[in-house]
């Protein structure tokens, strides 16, 4: 009886245990969307694996505050009801088991053209309206095939284009083509997937009807692979026919054609290739700030009679007869019958950090127009702009403000050195530039070209990183990336260069994601000077010549690379007899600069040893030796782990002063190519919220010190050891992290928010509202003004925003809301050590109470 009862109880317990376990044995979370990064309107969905019947979850923000909770039955997908932009940690429970991951919600990236590449998508293949047509290669009869929109496999969206060819009855090729919009592209990028093709043939028809054909080698893999064409009148097995038939590219392109060749198939008579995300890429125009379109007197231009030399008369009027652009131009007239030396039109403006000035002039009476620009110190820089005797509009361009014909300076610093930004402009009609006593000149479209501000990231795709994470880097809003193509891997046989496939892959993927490459030529090569296995630095003339040849081969192999750095951190990474010294670096830099510039004059050479805040004496010695002659841009790595990012300014200013000291008072561009803060437990680490705040402040702060590019270090955690510095610099987690591959740290969202604000923006100036607050003023890509306000230290504070209409406020983590001014035209905004973005054309001032 006892045995029977025990058996029955055991069966009952087994039955209950099979239906509902007392405790879940499995609980795991995996990203569905790359890195768990979502944009507005995307439902937050996380992969869920559990044997529990149900789970509960909670989502907390960066302060640990729970913002949402929920529960659901077990399923392969967990749906999280969070819609506000920001960074969140997700905690999921099933019985006694707990799993965590992180996710982010961002605003979509603007598609407006910005500095860098502007991409025109001509091959989404989402519908037939794009106009792709199949061609059976009829001049070689026998081939059959087709082209269709395919829903079974795609690189993005819901469709790809699939080209199929069958040569069992003959023929040589099939193709697909479409006409193109008139875009002055300088490269084409797309993705391809094929089971067995070794190459594709690519054709572009130029404006004359000439077809330019080249071969694109495929990797042999069967997954999606990126392809990029950066030269249209060259390439492997290049041929041309039709049209001008001169082998010279005459843009823009009229038609594109992708060819599936019988000769690319091995061991079969048929094949196919899928195509997706085909884009035409062209350089975006440099950003400009209009200073004078003369459509309204509200611009603030005024007439000045040159009163310090009495006697001249004249006027400023708005002329509607044949303006260069718009509906009217400015007309300046001068009459010197009563004496005087000049008359002028002039205006002041919000400080503009200009790199060039352009204007249109129309006159038949002047031989020159006078230009005066006032810098930030109040110093006036004056030069003469010579005019032709043409009676039509002519464009003038100025790229140097502290030099030029008849240059002189006065006021302010009075040192003949340009101290930007500019604060005022004067255009003079001089008596000495006319043959009589009266004259007039029309002026229009006065515009300042502003720096190509760019935020990017250092990466290690040339090392051991997978290129899978590249779209996540682009989604931050970064416009550039910095990586390597190691010399020792490219030249394994002396004089022969073969760059690893991973370099081709990541550069092509960068191009398709509109990331401007900065490539580093480094490190040593034991075919030549070899004192050290890791950082063996060239130290003989033969070794330096070999390095220069490798750098030249790098620029030749990758024409899409317009920025080339010579070595990484010579001042700490040049082992052996080179001994990290300034003179040994200069010898290498000179050899490399001379070689590369001779063959690739448009490549920007980035150098300077990458001096950090502790190596100022090294950099001064390098400059004293004449090193500035052999670089176009000075690279610095101003790490300051123990300090807030505002300290970067002092390091930048010190480097700039040294440049001017040894470069005849003339600046060289400065780029920060590495700087960052690491999390974890190592000495000098910061918590994740501080890393986020510091990176955003660094992005915002450096344009105020005339730094055009800032590459944070680095995009992804390099490992999972919390005690290792190098494992914890990233914006996203390592692929082996327990929180999930590439899942975001708070810094990812803060960086992305700042990058969106700065995307194509122009720095205008810095204000100090009080209470230790910093107010950086910018013009957004569309010209709309915005401000970034924060405190370098201290507690929370408030600012009073005076405005005539609604004001948009955006937090460090991208959450935006609109505030309307009170009856006094004021809005009160809470700010602190984190940046707060305030935008709106209605904002007139920001002050601390």
Automatic annotation (TrEMBL):
Q: Which Gene3D superfamilies match?
A: Galactose-binding domain-like, Glycosidases
Give the residues annotated as coiled coil. none
Question: What does UniProt give as the signal peptide span?
Answer: 1-24
| Record's keyword terms, sorted | Signal
Q: What is this protein called?
A: Asl1-like glycosyl hydrolase catalytic domain-containing protein
Report the Pfam families cross-referenced here.
Answer: Glyco_hydro_cc
Q: What InterPro entries does the entry give? A: Asl1_glyco_hydro_catalytic, GH, Glycosyl_Hydrolase_39
Q: Domain named Asl1-like glycosyl hydrolase catalytic: which ranges?
A: 550-702
* Species the sequence originates in: Kribbella hippodromi
